[in-house]
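Hmm, what's this shape?
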Amino acid sequence: MGFWGASYDDSFITYRYAQQFAESGCLCYNDGERVLGTSAPGYALLLGLATFLSGQLIGPAAFGTLASLVSIASLAVLVQRCSGAASIASSLIFLLLSLFARWNVEVYGAESFPVAALVSWSIVSLLGKGPAWLSGLLMAVALSLRFDAALALPPLLAAYYLRHRTIPVSFAASLGAPSLAFVAALQLYFGRVVPQTLESKRAEASPDFAYDVAQGSWLLRTFSQDYALIAVLLALATTGILVLARRRSSQALVFGLWLVSHEVFYRAVGVPFAPWYHVSTMLGLFYLTSVGATEVQELLGQRGSKLRTPVRVLATLIALLALARVSSQAATMWGEPPDPRYEVYRAVGEALHAEPAGTVAAIEIGVIGYFANEHRVLDLLALVSPEALEGKRSGDITKTLDEHPPDYLVEVPLFRAEYGVDQWADLALSYDLVVQYEDPSSGRGTVSLYRRRLSPSTETRE
């Protein structure tokens, strides 16, 4: 129904970790292979536990969507707490923008949503009237879901120290103890703490990659190149910053520095742009927009009775236009998977599920691996397969295929030239075509599934 259970391809890598945990208690992508190939191990555990407790009546993908929606609703409550007299209006504006913005819809299910909610509540709790230990615990949970939540710590602790001239001991204890335990568990279980995905992503980025251009293009795509709407959002966000600086300057400053450091970090570590890294920035923009809009209305309306009515009429018209805009966009997307690759990759995964178990090599493994289920996946982009890292770095994955010939191969035309799959001699000599799928929606042409001749896993079937 709607967008339920659908997400971008990478999210399904975490979902497969969660599914494996729910079924066997093993936090792994391939059975028995302890490779930290997800940047959200805590999120995989959470979804896996929820799936297990549901008796597997509800899967990780559905729980991922639910986690995103609950997180947005939680942030809407936070907006109401941090707003002025027009708090309900601010909350509703934030809710509408966040729920139906194409950027968010396309990455529903990402761990970035609960991380953004947990970090935001932690900041408000520590700098507001909440207990410091609760703030620390919320931050610890956020860190376990995704390590980049730690980017909020320097500005948060600095703001607290400048206000109180002391270190929040209970915050540090409730944050430090569970975080250290979680890191130690990762080291013992996987033999590493930093996910394999970071090395893989860094190997993917080219020296001339323009991060800001890629992010800007996605932003314009998100709003259907509606430059007027973008201008309004940015203008209101600026106004919101100015207004918040008068009311809750420390919280506003911490939020701002956290979002800025988040943007700087991903450019600094040299990974390609991906929208799910920047969910918190998008939600922060909507937060400033919603709070700024209602605050400006109040400030202008209080200047005199002559201005009050026109301002409220104008604000109502703007709100109605915004509502019409997001409703129209949501209606257009409703019922369609947000990732155009989803349908064809699911078909490939289900075709594999009907085949005898074996090793399948693929370049995009999220949806395919999730629906292929019992098949071992050789990830040619090396997110969950360290043995493929050298081939990815050199831009020649045929080396990986020669050294680890798979039982099945999924060929995606988009990556043929870039990674040299079409130059792999064994494809023509040793593999038979199983099925092909036309995929015009995502521009990937014909996606093909090949089976290796006389493979140990298929020999009896032949």
User: Anything to note?
Assistant: The first strand starts at residue 359 and ends at 362.
